[in-house]
Structure to design on (266 residues):
């Protein structure tokens, strides 16, 4: 698929205004570098697993800034937020793409499929999908791959293979054992892909949960600190009031001594 076949051109930045900060806008080139780092460190069975979220996102950000020296460095929060935002839009696009592929009519080209996908994605609204190149970079990953097949860049190859498979099947019928093995392998691959996808989703949910807990803990600590400061201020006010009284009874003297110890002995 070329740029001329895209439904809409890709603007320099697709981040919602409410989520932008003072950093420069994201563009397609930066998006692709970020995705490349995520694929290298976030999905590799050797590198991407058995490490914390901070560890592999740190590697992704290091990779990104190393290959994007033309722009100011981005931190972990900016890169992770950008990737999550793209991921949300691309997953929505993949869902629309699969829906169109299921009802694909005879003679439809890939351009026709993409046009119908854009219509389904927009749902009658003036919304354009502007992450075509990013989608193409991610679509071979289990998490973003179409369940219906039909990769954009493999149309001619896929047709050729389908034709060869068809001819081969007619000339040499598949035996029962070979058919069973093929079915088991396909089932095993589908199960593994499903497990990997669910595992990635589980990790994302746990990360979000941890972030929320951190935020709640911080808010609670700030509230406790504020409450403690208010309590100390009240004690000091009472202490000063008692200190200036000339005649104190035993109860007030005891209270004054208690306040003095609590305020000044710690």
């Amino acid at each position: 698929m070329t740029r001329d076949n895209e439904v809409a051109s890709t603007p320099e930045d697709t981040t919602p205004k409410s989520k932008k900060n003072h950093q420069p806008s994201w563009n397609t080139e930066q998006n692709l570098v970020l995705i490349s780092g995520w694929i290298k460190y976030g999905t590799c069975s050797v590198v991407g697993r058995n490490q914390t979220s901070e560890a592999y996102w740190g590697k992704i950000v290091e990779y990104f800034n190393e290959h994007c020296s033309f722009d100011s460095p981005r931190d972990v929060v900016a890169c992770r937020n950008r990737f999550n935002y793209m991921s949300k839009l691309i997953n929505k696009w993949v869902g629309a793409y699969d829906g169109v592929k299921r009802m694909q009519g005879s003679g439809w080209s890939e351009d026709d499929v993409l046009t119908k996908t854009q219509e389904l994605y927009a749902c009658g609204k003036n919304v354009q999908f502007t992450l075509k190149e990013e989608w193409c970079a991610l679509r071979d990953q289990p998490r973003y791959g179409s369940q219906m097949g039909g990769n954009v860049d493999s149309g001619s190859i896929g047709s050729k293979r389908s034709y060869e498979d068809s001819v081969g099947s007619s000339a040499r019928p598949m035996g029962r054992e070979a058919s069973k093995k093929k079915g088991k392998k396909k089932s095993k691959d589908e199960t593994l892909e499903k497990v990997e996808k669910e595992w990635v989703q589980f990790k994302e949910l746990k990360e979000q949960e941890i972030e929320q807990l951190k935020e709640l803990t911080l808010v609670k600590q700030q509230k406790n600190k504020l409450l403690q400061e208010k309590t100390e201020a009240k004690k000091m006010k009472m202490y000063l009031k008692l200190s200036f009284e000339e005649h104190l009874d035993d109860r007030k003297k005891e209270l004054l001594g208690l306040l003095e110890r609590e305020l000044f002995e710690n």
